[in-house]
Amino acid sequence: MSTEFTLVAIALLAMLTLTAMIISRLRGLYGAAMVAALFSLLTASLFVLMDAVDVAFTEAAVGVGVSTVLVLTVLALTHSREAVTPRNRRLPAVAVVVAAGGALVYASQDLPAFGSADSPIQTHPITDVYLVESQEDIGIPNVVTEVLASYRGLDTLGELIVVFTAGLTVLSLLGTLAPPEDCKPPGRFHLTDYRVIRIVSGLLMPFILLFALYVLFHGDYGPGGGFQAGVIFASGFVLYGLVFGLDRAQQVVPPRVLWLLVSLGPLVYAGVGVTTMLLGGTFLDYDMLNQGHPESGQHLGILVVETAIGLTVAAVMMTIFFGFASRGVTRK
Amino acid sequence: MILAVMVALLVAMGLVLARVYLGPGRYNRILAVNLFGTKTVLFVAVVGYVFGRPEFLDIAILYALVNFVATIAVLRLTHYDELVEQHHEEEV
Amino acid sequence: MIATHYVYWVLFAIMMIGLYVVISHGNLLKKLIGLSIFQVGVFLFYISLGKVRGGSAPIISPTVQTYSHPLPQVLILTAIVVGVATLAVGLGLAVRIFETYGTVEEDEVITRSATDPADGVPEDSLNGGGGDAAQGDEA
Amino acid sequence: MHTVLTVASGVLLTLGSIFLLTGAVGLLRFPDFYTRIHAGGIAETVGAGFILLGLLVRPDDWSPSVAVRLLVILAFLVLTSPTATHVLAQAARRDGVPVWEEGDGPQ
Question: Which pTM was predicted?
Answer without folding.
Answer: 0.89
